[in-house]
């Protein structure tokens, strides 16, 4: 990316150790808009935006922006005074809008955007209190505030609103959806999230590397491997260590099993939402076999607490790898049969085809990532990035489908399960004996590190800063759902209200991950 290459950016940059190429640079706020605009024109997308209090004791704040392209992650930092503003980036990266609003709610870093509505606060804390500042008082001392939110109104003859949530009929997490419709056709959808805000950024404060790893793996329970790896990558880069080769192979194996389990569950749920309960029963049966083998071989169905700074907490012998390969072959066989059923089922295809369209142009403009991007023809996958060990020797085949509808996102899931099974076979063939963990100690001096990992939903960014006391000072975790929730608002336009559950499931975004 020429626009933010070290020779062009003209600011001190240094490569950060880790599994992906990452650059870090401190720039002036006056140059932020120009740098981001140039980067976007070169094909970069916004991977994350967040804020921290300045660690260098300048009595100010620091805005952080991670930009991603095909080859690298660029971590820009901008120093700001407490009352200063920075240029609105949503005109360059539309998905910056909600991140900017969240950065203000948490830290008081304000952009010049027109939309200054609260995002995470709801009625939980006053507008002049910022949870990520050191002077934030006990949240239990706040009296809940009246919570009104100015949704955008669509007016016209025959237009009415349907409010769904935030509490839903099932066990899914809370989120509010405001539909503006004529008859059953959707003219506009506006979301309001933030109901699951857990204060993750504050909880990391003062933790050791070990404690932080346990928290990272619980940010979003269906992506525990991806978050734990991103966290480990960040602290390993900060500490200047490289995990053993066998540990990296085992991490990749766990990441692919996490992907397989979630895609199998989604394929079943999508069949069920399309009126085909047989698909739900069959795919959930397959998912359960994956989770049970996880528990038997690795001690946890969801693979929690297995990826740790410095490596992995548990090894697999050859017999265990053979069991995984045997299970993979059985899943592959059944997957072919189920795929044929899905593709030949007229009722399902009637529901899937042309439903929830997200064109490649819209997906690119909105900066979507993960399977949603790949379902709209964008080959975005961090696993294929140069230098991302051990994927750099596995020749990852990125699954893309150009149609951008529910059918395309279903096919991407099928393709990715097949690919994950192939990758696991390659891992089992290449993994060599060796250590699985090395010490990863907190350095004596303050430092920063960043991790970037392709979870099953999309790419996860996690940045860590340590203090002079040898503890975590700041940790920001970014879920791909931040990028993809706004795209769902576009995908539902022109469809009928009863199609929304199907379109929503085809995205399957995280409330918990996006709420921090």
Describe the structure.
There is one protein chain. This protein has helices at residues 6-9, 29-41, 96-107, 200-203, 209-216, 224-239, 245-273, 277-298, 318-344, 346-352, 360-366, 370-375, 406-430, 481-491, 500-507, 511-514; strands at 13-15, 22-27, 45-53, 61-68, 73-80, 85-86, 110-111, 159-164, 176-182, 185-192, 307-308, 311-312, 448-454, 459-466, 472-478. By secondary structure, it is of the alpha+beta class. The chain has two domains: 2-120, Beta Polymerase, domain 2 (2-Layer Sandwich); 200-514, Cytochrome-c3 Hydrogenase, chain B, CATH 1.10.645. Residues 1-19 have low confidence and may be disordered.
CATH topology of the largest domain: Cytochrome-c3 Hydrogenase, chain B
Query: Which spans have pLDDT < 50 for at least 5 consecutive residues?
Result: 1-19
- CATH H-tier superfamily of the largest domain: Cytochrome-c3 Hydrogenase, chain B
What's the rounded overall pLDDT mean?
Answer: 92
What is the domain tally? 2
| Strand ordering within the main sheet | 1-2-5-4-3
The CATH architecture category of the largest domain equals: Orthogonal Bundle
Alpha-carbon Rg, integer: 22 Å
Spatial shape: globular
CATH class of the largest domain: Mainly Alpha
Proportion of residues in extended strands: 15-25%
Provide a count of the helices.
16
Characterize the quaternary organization of these chains: single chain
């Amino acid at each position: 990316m020429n626009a933010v290459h070290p020779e062009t950016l003209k600011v001190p940059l240094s490569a950060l150790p880790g599994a992906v190429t990452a650059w870090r640079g401190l720039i002036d706020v006056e140059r932020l808009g120009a740098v981001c605009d140039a980067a976007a024109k070169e094909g970069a997308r916004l991977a994350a935006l967040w804020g921290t209090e300045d660690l260098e004791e300048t009595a100010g704040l620091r805005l952080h922006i991670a930009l991603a392209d095909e080859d690298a992650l660029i971590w820009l930092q901008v120093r700001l005074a407490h009352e200063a503003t920075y240029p609105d980036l949503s005109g360059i990266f539309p998905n910056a809008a909600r991140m900017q609003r969240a950065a203000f709610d948490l830290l008081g870093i304000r952009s010049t955007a027109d939309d200054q509505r609260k995002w995470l606060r709801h009625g939980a804390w006053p507008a002049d209190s910022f949870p990520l500042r050191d002077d934030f008082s006990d949240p239990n001392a706040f009296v809940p505030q009246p919570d009104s939110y100015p949704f955008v109104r669509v007016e016209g003859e025959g237009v009415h609103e349907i409010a769904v949530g935030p509490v839903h009929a099932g066990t899914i997490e809370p989120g509010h959806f405001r539909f503006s419709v004529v008859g059953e056709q959707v003219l506009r959808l506006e979301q309001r999230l933030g109901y699951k805000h857990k204060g993750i950024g504050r909880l990391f404060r003062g933790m050791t590397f070990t404690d932080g790893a346990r928290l990272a793996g619980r940010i979003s329970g269906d992506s525990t491997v991806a978050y734990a790896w991103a966290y480990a990558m960040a602290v390993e880069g900060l500490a200047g260590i490289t995990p053993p080769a066998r540990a990296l192979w085992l991490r990749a194996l766990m990441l692919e099993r996490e992907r397989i389990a979630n895609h199998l569950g989604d394929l079943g749920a999508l069949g069920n939402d399309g009126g085909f309960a047989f698909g739900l029963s069959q795919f959930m049966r397959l998912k359960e076999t994956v989770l049970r083998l996880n528990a038997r071989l690795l001690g946890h169905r969801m693979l929690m607490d297995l990826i740790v700074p410095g490596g992995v907490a548990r090894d697999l012998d050859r017999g265990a790898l053979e069991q995984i390969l045997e299970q993979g072959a059985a899943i592959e066989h059944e997957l072919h049969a189920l795929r044929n059923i899905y593709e030949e089922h007229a009722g399902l295809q009637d529901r899937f085809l042309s439903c929830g369209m997200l064109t490649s142009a819209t997906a690119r403009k909105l900066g979507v990532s993960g399977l949603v991007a790949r379902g709209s023809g964008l080959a975005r996958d961090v696993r294929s990035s140069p230098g991302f060990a051990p994927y750099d020797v596995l020749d990852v085949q990125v699954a893309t489908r150009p149609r951008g509808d529910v059918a395309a996102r279903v096919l991407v899931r099928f393709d990715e399960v097949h690919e994950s099974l192939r990758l696991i076979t390659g891992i089992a063939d290449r993994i060599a004996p060796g250590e699985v963990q090395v010490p990863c100690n907190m350095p004596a001096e303050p430092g920063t590190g960043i991790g970037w990992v392709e979870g099953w939903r999309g790419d996860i960014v996690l940045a860590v800063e340590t203090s002079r006391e040898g503890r975590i000072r700041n940790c920001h975790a970014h879920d791909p759902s931040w990028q993809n929730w706004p795209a769902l608002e576009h995908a539902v336009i022109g469809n009928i209200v009863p199609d929304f559950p199907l379109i929503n499931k085809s995205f399957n975004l995280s409330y918990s991950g996006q709420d921090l």
